[in-house]
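re: that complex we talked abt at group meeting.

here r the seqs, copy pasted straight from the sheet so there may be weird spacing, ignore it
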Amino acid sequence: MPIDSISLKGSTRTITEFFEYSINSILYQRGIYPPEDFSRVKKYDLTLLKTHDDELKDYIRRILIQVHKWLLGGKCNKLVLCIINKDEGDTVERWSFDVTHYKSENSSEQSNEEPESIDSEVTKNQIRALIRQITASMTFLPELANEGNYTFNVLAYTDAYAKVPLDWADSDSKEVENAEVVQFKSFSTNDHKVGLQVSYRF
Amino acid sequence: MSVSGGSSPFLETPLEATSDKGIHLEDSPVRVGKNNHVDTIEAKDRQIISLEYKLNTLQNEFELERLQTQRQCNTLDKQYRSAVDELEKALDDTKFLHESNSKLQEELSVVKDQLNSTELEKDKIINGLQFKIRAIEQELSDSRLNQDSERSKLTNEVETCKIENENSQALLAKYEEELQKQSSELKNLIKSNNEKDIEISELKTTKIVNSHPNYSTEDLQELATMNRMFQDQMKYVKELEEANIKQANELKRLRNLNDSSQFWKSENEKLQSKLQDLEILENNIQELQVENIDLKSKLTSMNIFDDQNDKPENIINDWQLTKKENLILTDENSKLKLSVNNLKLLNEELAMERNQLLDLNKNYESSLINLKKLNHELDQQRLLSFEECKLLRKQLDDVNEVVTSDNEGRTKEMQSHKELETLIDDYKNKTDDLTNELKHINEQLLNSQKEQQNQLTKKRKTNDYNGLSYYSQRMNELQLENVELKRNLQKYQNLNKLLEEKTKKLISLKEKKIRILQLRDNPLANDQFIKKKQITLLQNENKDLMEQIKDSASDVRTVPFSVYESLSFELKQQENEIFKVNKKSVRLKEMFNKKSLEFIDVVNSILGFRLEFQQDNKVKIYSCFKPDKFLVVDLVKNTLVSNLNLHNWDELLKLWIEERGQIPCFLATVTLQLWEQLNSEKNVELTSI
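got the structure back, here u go
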């Protein structure tokens, strides 16, 4: 393993960090929250937008803390950001972050892929490419009419036996009906592989 | 014509038909008479046509039947042949199986005989071994007795040695004591001797002193006694010395005896250890005796003795070999038994097949009989048709006679009659041909049956010859099939295992369900909660208002509480909206300020002036080279005031603003002058330092 490769803890941290920035980016790009709620930050050698709305920040932070714990335990394998029409209650867009655990206690059901040790710089480049793809996806994604009439929800796909805190509850999958699916790039760490796909109402 | 009642439906109908027609035909010439020839001819024509038609139909039916019977015959023949073949095969198999079974049984009996002979040989060997064991036992008992006697001797010797040792030790002690006593006496004597020497010397000195010895008789007597005493003492000393020497010798002897006793002691210890070993050996002997007893008991049970004096090693080897052979033979026997069982099963199966084939054969024979019956019926029909033909001919002859006598103009009809006659002849010929053919076919059938039987007998013979090869071939095939089936079984078992594993995995996967979780306090839930609350409040309000409308009799104007609640909720929502809007405006302001600051910074850094917008439409302009001084531009009064204290301020103002109207240029020159001023001040400071 090279010196710059990431340990499991580091890997999960990288992933949760990526989740934070990608969720912020999507919320900004799709206009779920007004642009003035976001401020520019430098990350992954990119200028990204991050919310400074305390309520939203707290919400994302709470999610990511728990997701980080689940990821460390290998209990979470998917994080989904749903964009929902407030009036209709329909899911119009569904951003699904698939997490594959390379090494886990229950290796039988996990991925059999045995990755080579990945340099942190490579991971960073992959993340950068993915975030660029997210930004670029706004060109083909349908415009969300009635801006401000949408809200979002984050769903975590966990193991059935994962420890669930009281502030978390079960939910339906909130699938998009008659959806068009676009698969994005992925990035890998030593312990995980994160892929992204967006399904949207065509 | 014999009318035998067959099972065929064809038997009765033609007869009836012919009988009816016969009666009719016989009656018709009587009824017609000579007066009405035309009618009779027409009737005959009709009859001829009908007969022709019947003939045709009969021919067709006959052809069809013939074809069907041929087909049935062929199929039955094929079936019969195949069944006979199979039966033959089965019979051959069973024969061969019986033969192999008998052979195997013979082999088994031979093997059993061999086993018995080997067992007898084995028993003989065992007897020889038992004899040897007895001899060895006797030798062992003798040696044990010898050993016991030697042991007793040795123990006695040891005991005597011990006693001698003890006596010698006691003697040694006595001698030592005596030695000590004698040495002490010797010491005393030496002391007394010395004393006497001293006395002698004293006496000598007294003698010398006296010079003149005036010895009295008393003194002489004393001296003589003294001399005697000395002599006695000398003797005694000598005796003592001798005794001492003797004692020393005795001591030496006793020491030697002590050494020997120690040696005997060690010997005794060794012997005792040997004795212990002997005890162990005794135990072993006892065990051997037990074994020997067992062997004896076995021997007695066998009751067969033999005086063969082979070497025990050879016997053991032979015995082991026979044991191995026995094992092999038992294995073979079990295998043979299995094969016999299998063959029995096969035989049973073949018997079943044979029974089935016999049934088939019976069926075939019965079908053959039926066919023969059919054939017979067809013959009968043929004969009937012959009879019909004869009758028709007679009728025709009658008609011809009538016609020739009556009418010549009806030659055409005659021609037709002739034609009919030829037709009937043809029919007759055909029926003859058919009967011949039938006969020929029957003969052929019989011949073919005979040939088949011959072939079958030949086949049987050849099968008898080739039975072994056939059976072996079949066995090989069955073995190959068995191997293939085993492989398939293994394959399917493996597949089954894999599938089971997969199903287990799938079950475990199914069991390991995924949970989809969301934070209870999420934006969507909050939004939905607000909406739901709003809806319930509005519903309540609606309900209350409706009730109020219904009870509108009361004059008092009241509003339901639910209206208040909904309104207050709406108010709260509005407040929240306001809060959000405020938040948004604050953020926008912040953004604006940030941006304006950025702008001011940019302007300051690029143009060298910092602008400060004041409330009364005035703009303060600070130069970066003199931040404490400023220019004030009044946009309302259109004035420009400064506290920069430039020496050529008025000139610059006049030139750039009044004359040329270029404020930026004016500011640029001011900036330049201020920079020069600052530089010169710095230089002055440096020079002063």
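couple things i noticed - Chain B touches chain A at residues 505, 508-509, 512-525, 527-528, 584, 587-588, 591 (CB under 8 Å). The radius of gyration of chain B is 78 Å.
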